[in-house]
Design goal:
Order of helices and strands of chain A: EEEHEHEHHEEEHEHEHHHEEEEEH
Strand order of the largest sheet of chain A: 13-12-11-14-10-15
CATH class of the largest domain in chain A: Alpha Beta
Largest interface: A-B, 64 and 63 residues
Main location (chains A, B): cytoplasm
Subunit structure (chains A, B): Heterotetramer of two alpha and two beta chains.
Subcellular location (chains A, B): Cytoplasm
Largest sheet of chain A: 6 strands, mixed
Catalytic activity (chains A, B): N(2)-acetyl-L-ornithine + L-glutamate = N-acetyl-L-glutamate + L-ornithine; L-glutamate + acetyl-CoA = N-acetyl-L-glutamate + CoA + H(+)
Pfam families (chains A, B): ArgJ
CATH topology of the largest domain in chain A: L-amino peptidase D-ALA esterase/amidase
Mean pLDDT of chain A: 91
Radius of gyration of chain A: 22 Å
Strand content of chain A: 15-25%
Oligomer: homodimer
């Protein structure tokens, strides 16, 4: 699978019995080196799940040998006992792989406020380690084992000019799911790089890809994006070359998350141009992407520029300087509003494609930023209300 | 009707033909004095409708003799022509009433981006002025004429200890409506007060009532809240006495807006206590009230405290200092989460009443704030997507 496309990695997913139904629910990713470089980016939610607390400190030294990931339970808001569970999981995997517990990262996704079934989880880890003793799984079981309400596994890979490979798996979709729909991502590369270079490449890639997916404005307690480097290719790429590949794989996975967002009928790309700064453009794009009125209108195939303009107007002037009378809004290529007023007839906009492009020209500067979101649909409400969770 | 409960006011609603269907769509409120004190609070959206631009400058001198309000069109994003329409409306009403155009306030609600049918509007104003020549209407026609998708007219009144009366009408509901669901409110009082006192009372009342209604986080281009004082009672109440009455009528109307929010099945009262400041409490309350996951869970009668805690955790620490491990969450009186973790069984929460009380104890200080919102329902999506608007 894609996560093992780079040399030096093994990965597998197993059905450990964490989920009520017998499904793949535990994934183990092992870095066989020679390097054990690792970097991580985590949720900025102040309510942090136990595995996030564990992994954040474990990866702080820039090293990791393995990642164990489970679906079927977030291990969030579970107190000291929950942290002990994450710690014990890392120690158990460390014993199985004969590495240090500090070099085992843990990630979880599922319900908040419930303890994990530790007996099943630990036994599943043993099964996974046993399976990996025979070599990497040839299937996509690791990508499948981290799925919650995802309908398809998400994988991507890229090869750089110098022959370095970057691979990755992901689950989640902004938050368009019955639970908080944690975003879990593991990226791998066989590049020879330093921990500092890995960290820089991951942060830059995350900033412009995963951080630009804002399906429903709700931030998980468990979001985790990891990058592991084995150095097995023996190739030391340029910093920019590696960063570009990490960004490409991240962008690919991020786009897959949006495309699989549960309940969504449109993938909405909000692009704000002619802003005074990237931060200003991003603030306006995010405000539009978070407007339930805009999102519901898109579900109704209505290119409602009034709602888009009104959302833009909610961004404070010190955050995004622009003249409301200079705004222009295009939907799927048709400029439905210009000069802050009426433009082309909205009837001329074709809203039937799944992908919807909203372009807002602030007429204030040279900076640009974009956000990917989804529309607000009956299925979103159904997914997030009909099941007790 | 309630807006004419205070002495010195006349009001009426007429069917001017602004709406496609023959419905009440134009209201005229006249202050016969002897005072002509007025104050206004308007949307902070940077995209401001023409009537907002007009009324903001017209009321800046603390005086007004009349308010003309229409449904069926917001007159927003209509450029200089739209502003000329609002100006012309004020001048027309001023001629009819033999007052200055600068003393006529204008408010509109409806679609963004379309010009108003001025001939119909001006003729309707003439009809309304003619009807008022015979005295105040005895019905609720003014309250009905500003309704868009409101299902009931909203009216309230209060009498202070010294005998001063405050009355009011309102339309809208946060934003739970096919259009931006502008909030229009006109309050009246027969108190003898200065323009400064009226302004202070209105701002304080708005801050803790209308500003605390956050049905779907979307801010209109047309929100307008006005207070007119006639002085006709001859009574000069204490500043606090009047402020209390204005706040009471505002709170009553705000609660009516939430109760009539289209598509909603729950009115949700989010109360945050033990915060370090009112601003901190308000930031947490608003974040929870704006979480689509929390709102969808409530629609599903699920007291999902994990989503509530996760929303609280999204507020930056410098905005609202608190320890996530000290959080306690009660839903309808049952403390489902304490110490940042599991509390009473969620099954013991009765979610069937329309009113849902979410109490979040931050354990950090003495300050409190609250927000009223609604749940996220299929009907909300339907209302905001099914009709081209």
């Amino acid at each position: 699978m894609s996560i093992t496309a780079p040399q030096g990695f093994r990965a597998v997913g197993v059905a450990a019995g964490i989920k009520a139904a017998p499904k793949l629910d535990l994934a183990l990713v092992v870095n066989d080196g020679p390097l054990d470089v690792a970097a991580g980016v985590f949720t900025t939610n102040r309510v942090q799940a136990a595995p996030v607390v564990w992994s954040r400190q474990a990866v702080a030294d820039g090293r990791a040998r393995a990642v164990i990931l489970n679906s079927g339970g977030a291990n969030a808001c579970t107190g000291p006992e929950g942290f002990a569970d994450s710690h014990r999981t890392a120690e158990h995997v460390a014993e199985l792989l004969e590495v240090s517990a500090q070099d085992v990262l843990v990630a979880s996704t599922g319900l908040i406020g419930e303890r994990l079934p530790m007996d099943a989880l630990l036994e599943g880890a043993r099964t996974a380690a046993g399976a990996l003793a025979a070599g990497p799984a040839a299937d996509d079981s690791a990508a499948r084992a981290i799925m919650t309400t995802d309908t398809v596994p998400k994988q991507a890979s890229a090869t750089t000019a110098s022959g370095v490979v970057v691979g990755g798996i992901a689950k989640g979709a902004g938050m368009l799911a019955p639970q908080l729909a944690t975003m879990l991502v593991v990226l791998t590369t066989d590049a020879v790089i330093s921990a500092e270079a890995a960290d820089a490449a991951l942060r830059e890639a995350t900033r412009t890809t995963f951080d630009r997916v804002d399906s429903d404005a709700c931030m998980s307690t468990n979001d985790t994006v990891l990058l592991l480097a084995s150095g097995a290719s023996g190739i030391e790429p340029g910093a920019e070359e590696l960063a570009d590949a990490v960004r490409a794989v991240s962008a690919d996975l991020a786009r897959q998350l949006v495309a699989d967002a549960e309940g969504a009928s449109h993938d909405v790309h909000v692009v704000v141009t002619s802003a005074t700064s990237e931060a200003a453009a991003l603030a306006v794009a995010r405000e539009i992407a978070r407007s339930n009125l805009v999102k519901a209108a898109i579900f109704g195939n209505d290119p409602n520029w009034g709602r888009i303009v009104a959302a833009a107007g909610c961004v404070p002037e010190d955050v995004a300087p622009f003249d409301p009378a200079a705004l222009a809004v295009s939907v799927n290529g048709v400029q439905v509003s210009r000069g802050g007023g009426v433009g082309e007839p909205r009837e001329s906009v074709d809203m039937t494609p799944r992908e919807c492009l909203i372009e807002v020209d602030l007429g204030a500067g040279d900076a640009t930023a974009d956000i990917w979101t989804n529309d607000l649909t009956h299925d979103y409400v159904e997914e997030n209300s009909a099941y007790s969770s």
